[in-house]
Amino acid sequence: MERILLCVCCFSGWFVSTCCPRQYHYVDDAKTWTEAQSYCQQTHTDLASIENTEEMKQLNSTVSSAAHSSELWIGLYSQIRWRWSDGLTGSGADYRNWDTSEYEPDFYSGVQFCVSSLEGKWWDFQCREKLQFICYRGSQMNPEFDLVDKEMSWSDARRYCRENFLDLATVKNPGENQQVHEKAQSKRVWIGLHREPHIYWSDGTKYSFSNWASGMNPFRGMSKICAALTRSGEWKTLSCETRLPFVCYSLPTPVKRQVVKLTVHVEDPPVDLNDSAVKAELLTRASSHSPPLHSHRLYVYQFPDFE
Asked: Where would I find the C-type lectin domain in this sequence (predicted)?
């Protein structure tokens, strides 16, 4: 009996390799985030990216062994671009009234991208929180504000305002801010200011895993914030101009992904191709006959029966 087994293997030289994890490198040289990024790209692969818990543990192990005593740059950063829901640009679009006594905006725990108003002072807030909100009717230049006493997330509040008014409140000056404050009746309310969650890894890795510390990350007046690893192994944001040690990463020597077609003659007694010992023998023989890395041919191997 003859059976065909298709194997997808990674060959590096003459050896079968597993997937290649990141290798982290602690650099004890204080640089700005941009300087650290350039150093890592020139010397290794890039500033450290982390995609899962295992990589987070590996990175923490690397820096723990170096006995670092301060925050360290990693490759994460965010662009700060505040926008009004109704798209206002130009005159009045840059008006802000942050609650500076509370260090707002503070990107608390790395999850705040929408803006609420309380007693006329503005806070960045987690968009999924349910609050009452201020809509406006009329026009951008001459708005009439209304309190909606339904509690919704920021996105749902915007949808409601667009369906029943014009949009969530745009606030262009102190006079309009006072009107919103009076309409809010001392309640915390959504207004239309927000920013997209533009968070990126330096090497282009998709941002999905996070390990933010619970706490404030003040960034008032900044157009970009960068992430640092704290001594507890969690993340916080700082001004990108802060000078810190940092962590780079590199990848092992690239491996070739090779499809190998194995022709196996099986006689009595039959061979179980799912048996771990049989699989190991197949991989050993395939790797011992693997073509050079520059070859792209499909090789067919015929093995004698297993005893």
From this structure: 24-136, 131-249
Beta bridge partners of 201: 76
Q: Are 111 and 181 in contact (CB under 8 A)?
A: no
User: How do residues 195-214 score in pLDDT, each as one tens digit?
Assistant: 988 889 999 999 999 998 87
Tens digits of residue pLDDT in 20-65: 579 999 999 999 999 999 999 999 999 999 999 999 999 999 988 8
CA diameter of the chain: 92
Give the whole-angstrom CA distance, residue 245 versus residue 60. Answer: 14
- Here the tokens at position 38 are 């350039």
> What's this model's pTM, rounded to 2 decimal places?
0.68
Q: Answer for the pair 192, 127: CB distance below 8 angstroms, yes or no.
A: no
Report whether 169 contacts 192 (CB < 8 A): yes
CA neighbours closer than 13 Å in the CB half-sphere of residue 11:
21
